[in-house]
Amino acid sequence: MKRDPAALSGPTYEVAVVGGGIYGLSAVHEAARRGLTTCLVERGDFVGATSSNSLKIIHGGLRYLQHADLRRMRESIGERARLLRVAPHLVRPLPFVLPTYGHGLRGREVMRVALLLNDLIGYDRSAGVLPERRIRRGRVIERDAVRAMLPDLDPQDLTGAAVWFDCQVGNTERLALAYLHAAVSAGAVCANYVGATELLLRGGDVLGLRAVDQLTGSELEVRARTVVNAAGPWVDRLLGALPGAKQGRRFHPSKAMNLVTRRLYAEYAIGFTVPTRFRDSDALINKGTRMFFVVPWGPYSLIGTRHLPFHGDPEEFRITEADIELFLTEINATCPGAGLCRGDVLAVHGGMLPETPRQDRDEVQLVKHSRVYDHAREGARGLVSIVGVKWTTARLAAEEAVELVQARLRPGAALSRPAEGSLPGGDIDDLGRFLASGEASRPAAVTPTSMRHLLETYGTASRQVLDYVRRDASLGHQLAGESPVIAAEVMYGVEHEMAQHLGDVVLRRTALSAGGHPGRKALGHCADLMGSALDWSPARREAELDATEAELT
């Protein structure tokens, strides 16, 4: 998989996708596997903006019961099962625990009914899933069991807890990159660091888009019969010049924040409720609370998601120290045993999610469903935009957009959905045998911990990473402290995944920065490896180190 911006200016594509987050990558994959000639441009790095912020959870929509939104539950359950089938190395079940209080809306009785409904609605939740990845039934546990699990929990009115299973993605960036690999394998041309600047229009028809190669400054014309605008918080920028553009924004941004901290709890994700004045106008049942989860993630905990209002330009987005302190105060007040201070926060993931505009500017009400817009009535036939909400259902929104495009491109032709196939790395028939076989063939230069990491991160594609070690044993060495990431992953990211900058490898191709800054020595080693592969000068090496330090900060 090579970066070749010149190829974008060649033929007239049937579909050009703008945006390399999870929605854009899902769209380019869906289009390419249907046989449409397809390309994608991303102005920064793949999965480098909003999609980089996530609690790493693929959820089946238990919370949607309070909205009686059974359609969204079924969609989420179906997509969760699909991800378990196509990427079993990356996606795995995770137990969730939500303490119950009293005998009202937060009580055992209500949660018992909710879990029963969840199991009934998700009757096929493990269809076609490997045995080790099947989703178990929910249950309610007794008060004493909860106290043993969470001794610092407030005991007043505690009656027990609800336990159910959703899924965790060990590395969301690797999952998104798997979609990229699959799209390119199906014939798509994709390039990072190519920014779309404007649409090419003639007589109300989209002819493609103009773009700039951010690395060279070269201007490009990408000819395409249709354009799918999946630029996330920047989706409105491409729409501003439409002759008949409607007033108002499609994407009203809000802040979303997740904290990476020292490990707080063991193998369960624990839900906590924060009292609030917020009322969800779409909910049939309003509990008067907001919720966050403390989720185990390797040696760390992920805590989130905290949503905050944001009214600026997407370019001005940042998580502030005040935002972090506000969330830490809420966490410590809700679960006193945590005792978190600012120094316990190892990393902060931030991004923007679309909210429903409302007069209450202190709380955020997120858009509930992803939306697909056809802009034909606005003077742009052949332009479709996606405003996405959740990682879980990104593929579904992409499918809707691509099928709309497909119907326009090939009117009268029957819409056929290709058979489901594993994502690259996910072609595993027996998970236990795959892991045992991989560990048995471990090169001597790779530690058992790193080998397990490679198998669970790359799946069957780990063989390609290990090829580097077999050619050069020094590439099997770990790069930093306790991190299992090895040098071969850097080379694989550069030579097979279009990594152009040091930050691309440190933050997105590998898990090197999962627990925060990996240390200057590790960054220097990565810079040496990338520099040798990309022929960096000493000045370029130093510039890349400084830029990555700034990005990590």
Walkthrough of the structure:
By secondary structure, the protein is α/β, with parallel strands linked by helices. About 30% of the residues lie in helices and about 25% in strands. The chain has helices at about 20-35, 70-85, 110-120, 145-150, 170-185, 320-335, 395-410, 430-440, 450-460, 460-470, 485-495, 500-510, 520-535, 540-550, and strands at about 15-20, 40, 55-60, 90-100, 140, 160-170, 190, 195-200, 205-215, 220-230, 255-260, 270-275, 290-295, 300-310, 345-355, 370-375, 385. β13 (about 290-295) and β14 form a beta hairpin. The longest helix is centred in the N-terminal third of the chain and has 17 residues, at about 70-85. The model has no long low-confidence stretch (mean pLDDT about 95).
Secondary structure blueprint with pairings:
Elements: E1 13-18, H1 22-33, E2 38-42, E3 57-58, H2 70-86, E4 91-101, H3 108-121, E5 139-142, H4 143-149, E6 158-169, H5 172-185, E7 189-192, E8 194-202, E9 205-213, E10 219-229, E11 253-262, E12 269-275, E13 289-297, E14 300-309, H6 321-334, E15 345-354, E16 371-374, E17 383-387, H7 394-409, H8 431-440, H9 448-458, H10 462-471, H11 487-496, H12 502-509, H13 520-534, H14 538-552
Parallel strand pairs: 1-2, 1-10, 2-7, 4-12, 10-17
Antiparallel strand pairs: 3-6, 4-6, 5-6, 8-9, 9-10, 11-14, 11-15, 12-13, 13-14, 16-17
